[in-house]
Write a structure and sequence with these properties.
By secondary structure, the chain is mainly alpha-helical. The protein has helices at 3-17, 39-49, 53-66, 71-88, 92-104, 109-125, 130-150, 155-166, 176-189, 191-201, 207-220, 225-237, 241-254, 260-271, 275-286, 294-310, 314-327. Helix 8 runs antiparallel to helix 9 (176-189). The longest helix is centred in the middle third of the chain and has 21 residues, at 130-150.
Length: 346
């Protein structure tokens, strides 16, 4: 695989799932992973949120040894292994768990959507191994297509397909016609999600047109926080701190739980080497009340350390990195944070 193709995949993975730098992580979705989740799945999730990842895994393993047909527990185990992968750098265990959930409940689109997410990340981890990369790419598209077949209104799965089909060449599984069909399906179902898909597919290299699209939508849907999220990101990439801040503040006014926009903006300004606003947004995220999920706070603390290192403040950087590891031993030492969906309750 060429360096250019590996770079393309990394961009796709970030756009689809990382939810920090890509708007595709912020489509409308029913956040429940499964209706009436058994107590053990919810208990394990709460343990994860408290940083007790290993204890949660033990509880799930004990439950599944007794009740191997508990699909919700298999899903929570898959999410747990996914969370750990930022440090362990392996996703085969997460993939095994989600495949078990699908065997138990093959008609649940949520499980197929998660299988697609996991396969995208597994492809990224194996991007130097072309046969395994292609295998994981195929798994990702097959799983997302299955989710859409079961539930045509699964916008997250459609977004995965837009990014995978639209951002990769044919020899790596790309398919412009299929990408276009999913963009048009989203546009017919949701003006906001349709706009996100259109920006990812045909406007990704046209920032002025993207900004115009979101500005127009704000006139019609000014109370939708996702519109302001996308405006904030576009202004950040344009280097406009003032307008990015205005729209981020609007997001938090409309939907106080959508604080991840602050991570998005911090990362955008850091990549543009505008370190003062990058640090300000990272610190705002860390100061959220109520606080963000522990693993995301750890990533933000780590990102703050990177920003401080870029600014030449090595002592502060080392302290920030120490705090990140202390917050979460499985902290993702990656350019983008773990997907927000990992921290939504079952």
């Amino acid at each position: 695989m060429t360096r250019q193709n590996r770079r393309r995949l990394t961009v796709v993975g970030g756009a689809v799932l990382l939810a920090a730098v890509g708007a595709l992580g912020h489509t409308q979705e029913n956040h429940a992973t499964t209706p009436n989740a058994p107590d053990i799945a919810l208990k394990a999730y709460r343990m994860r949120m408290e940083g007790k990842v290993d204890e949660a895994k033990q509880a799930l393993a004990k439950e599944l040894a007794k009740k191997p047909k508990n699909a919700a527990a298999w899903l929570e185990l898959a999410r747990l292994e996914f969370q750990k992968s930022g440090t362990t750098r392996e996703l085969d265990s997460a993939q095994t768990a989600i495949e078990q959930a699908i065997r138990v409940a093959p008609d649940n689109p949520v499980y197929h959507r998660w299988a697609g997410r996991i396969a995208v990340y597994n492809a990224i981890l194996n991007s130097k191994d072309q046969p395994k990369f292609k295998e994981q790419f195929k798994k990702a598209t097959t799983a997302a297509e299955k989710a859409v077949m079961i539930d045509p209104d699964d916008h997250k799965a459609r977004m995965t397909l837009v990014a995978l089909y639209g951002n990769n060449p044919p020899d790596l599984g790309g398919d412009q016609l299929r990408a276009k069909s999913h963009v048009e399906a989203l546009e017919g179902r949701s003006p906001v999600d349709g706009a996100v898909a259109r920006c990812e597919f045909s406007l990704k290299n046209e920032p002025e047109k993207k900004l115009a699209l979101w500005t127009d939508l704000a006139k019609k849907l000014g109370e939708d926080p996702r519109v302001h999220e996308n405006l904030a990101r576009e202004y950040a990439w344009d280097g406009n701190v003032e307008k990015a801040t205005v729209h981020a503040d609007k997001v938090l006014t409309l939907a106080p739980t959508r604080g991840q926009i602050l991570l998005d903006l911090g990362r955008a300004f850091a990549l543009k080497k505008e370190l003062e606003p990058a640090e300000q947004f990272a610190r705002r995220y860390l100061a959220l009340d109520p606080p963000a999920p522990l693993s995301l706070r750890a990533w933000a603390q780590m990102d703050l350390g990177r920003i401080q290192q870029m600014a030449g403040n090595n002592e502060a950087s080392a302290e920030s990195l120490r705090k990140a590891k202390q917050l979460d031993p499985y902290c993702w030492f990656t350019m983008s944070p773990p997907p927000q969906q990992l921290f939504e309750a079952p």
